Automatic annotation (TrEMBL):
Domain called Peptidase M50: residue spans: 37-99
CC cofactor: Zn(2+)
Localization per Swiss-Prot or TrEMBL: Membrane
InterPro entries assigned to the protein according to its UniProt record, in alphabetical order: Peptidase_M50
Protein name: Zn-dependent protease
Organism phylogeny: Bacteria, Bacillati, Bacillota, Clostridia, Eubacteriales
Gene Ontology cellular-component terms listed: membrane
Keywords per UniProt: Hydrolase, Membrane, Metal-binding, Metalloprotease, Protease, Transmembrane, Transmembrane helix, Zinc
Species annotation: Desulfoscipio gibsoniae DSM 7213
Stated family: Belongs to the peptidase M50B family.
Alphabetical list of CDD domains matching this protein: S2P-M50_SpoIVFB (cd06161)
GO MF entries: metal ion binding; metallopeptidase activity
Amino acid sequence: MRLGRVLGVNIYLNPFFLGLLALYFVAGVLDRGLVAFGVVLVHEMAHALMANRLGISSNEVELLPFGGVARAGTELQVDPLRETYTALAGPASNLAMFALGVALKNYGLWHADLGPFFLQCNLLMAFFNMLPALPLDGGRVYRSYLAARIGITPATYRVALLGQIFGVLIAVFGVLGIWWGACGLDIPVTAFFLFYAATRERSAAPYLLMQLLMRKQQELFREGVLSAKQLVVTENVPLGQLIRFFMPRCYHLMTVLDRHWQYKGTVTETRVIDTLLHRGANVPVGELIEK
């Protein structure tokens, strides 16, 4: 459901978010639901505006039960530095709103019920999103950190797995909390959406790698220079296994050794990518050495 347009960004409400607001209405605390809505909206707008500021197109925000999604160009996910800045913008906006709330309280501009809830929402939003698990903001920062060390595909698998684990743990504690009367149904619902979104992140990992490789060729063509990284590989290693070690903002040169550990030749990243696209992931890298 399209809600409107703010600062060039289209705002959409997920049907499940509307369901959550309906639960607030039935429980007689719709005013709290609207406060939560505003907190989530500012959080996601901060992501979208930061992405636009960094030159990544982001013109759509969808509000979900556990938070929201600021949809940006796919190039954001294969640019670790810009993804980190964009991810941190959300929690930073919550901390800024928390500070604003404290200032308003000190000046007497305060609501006895909604004021503390506003502060609580911002703190929970900030710290929950900083968990090192995809698709949360902390997971995107952690993925960017790992991608520069182990490659974007294994980094995405690892951090998305953490998202699934956190989803299961939150669901278990949420059910126990309902049993003990300590929380409501919103906690297990949040856990379900966290697990679902983390699973989608895992399934998208191979496509991220291909986006990274194609973007890197564009960067090299545009800038004319990239830092290089040397890899040593035996001739029987398939290309699908090799490219998992490719990292952002770095051009790879492969020194290929034969089965006797003797130098056989050098293969460029461009040759690996071209062969991968035309012949598949099972081609041994040794076949790329010209006779």
